[in-house]
Amino acid sequence: MINGVTASVARLAWAGCMAIAVALMPPLASAQTQKASQEETRQQLLRQLESGQFREAIASGREAVSRWPADAQIRHYLGLAYFKNGEIQPAREQLARARDLDPKDAATRFDLALVFLSETDYPAAANELEAAVKLNPSNPLWHTLLGRAYLNSNRSLQAIDEFKTALKLDPAIKLGHYHLGFAYFSLGRNDEAITEYKEEVRRSGESRAVAYELGRALLESGQFASALTYLQRASQLDPANSDVWYNLGKAQESNGDAAQAEVSFRKAAELNPKDPSPHYRLARLLEKLGKTDEARQERERFAELKKAQPASAGMATGRDQ
């Protein structure tokens, strides 16, 4: 009898231990439900982003982050929602946190780079894009944007390498030859720039940017008649751009058409009243045409505008005078 009682007590003790152990274990069904809910939330955020419901995505994302603060993908989507809604600072914060949680996610680094590019923080953008292309080296767009970040950070040789890589990956990438041409032009390699710009025209047709930059490169190379053709086209495609009219005036003057050059310089001055450069060009041109009074007025206007600029700024557009 004693043995029977002992066995019963032992069974009761074992049952009690098992009950305690089960109570301490997380319910399997609950964990699965939570995981499913987390994935459903990601999918909901993605749908809201794709459908342009950015405010709704922000609200959903903030609530989700409070539940799953270590979920890098949810923070990524929340950062995108902020960015697409024009809220740059919280976008940067969420995407940076997502990057820190998952440093090997190339898409997060790319989207964070887009935020930095929107803030013209080119060195920071380049850092993120460098990491992104290491993780995904076969994306031509990412190489193109890295090239642009380098170019805007005065790293033209590195920019050229990235643009060439992008074109090798996708010879038809939009504006690929244009960007490469621009990088060459920034180094004074005008002949190479002209070749790339013409290739862009051949592949994609004339756009206002390509027509202007090709005309400018031809002008700097002394090919005035060819420059005139493209700059005239640029003035039709982008008539509100003062730089177009300024360079068109230079081409016209160099090509022997002083009357039309005067019109173009005056148009440039009208479109950008704070720029001294057109007034300098007008003063010289009017002097040659014998319009001494008008030349004196333009020279005075040039001096006033140049004096109004900060001492370190030089010409407003960085142009030669």
If you had to describe this structure to a student in words, what would you say it looks like?
- The protein has helices spanning 2-24, 28-50, 54-67, 72-84, 88-101, 106-118, 122-135, 140-151, 156-169, 176-186, 190-204, 208-220, 224-237, 242-254, 258-271, 277-288, 292-308.
- With 321 residues, the protein is mainly α.
- The protein is elongated, with a radius of gyration of 32 Å.
What is the number of helices? 17
Beta-strand percent range:
under 5%
Shape: elongated
Uncertain stretches: 5-29, 312-318
- Radius of gyration (CA) equals 32 Å
Number of strands: 0
Q: Average the pLDDT over all residues and give the rounded result.
A: 89
Name the helix and strand elements from N-terminus to C-terminus, one letter apiece.
Answer: HHHHHHHHHHHHHHHHH
Relative helix content: over 70%
Structural class of the secondary elements?
mainly alpha
Distance between the termini: 115 Å
Largest sheet features: none
In short:
78% of the residues lie in helices and 0% in strands.
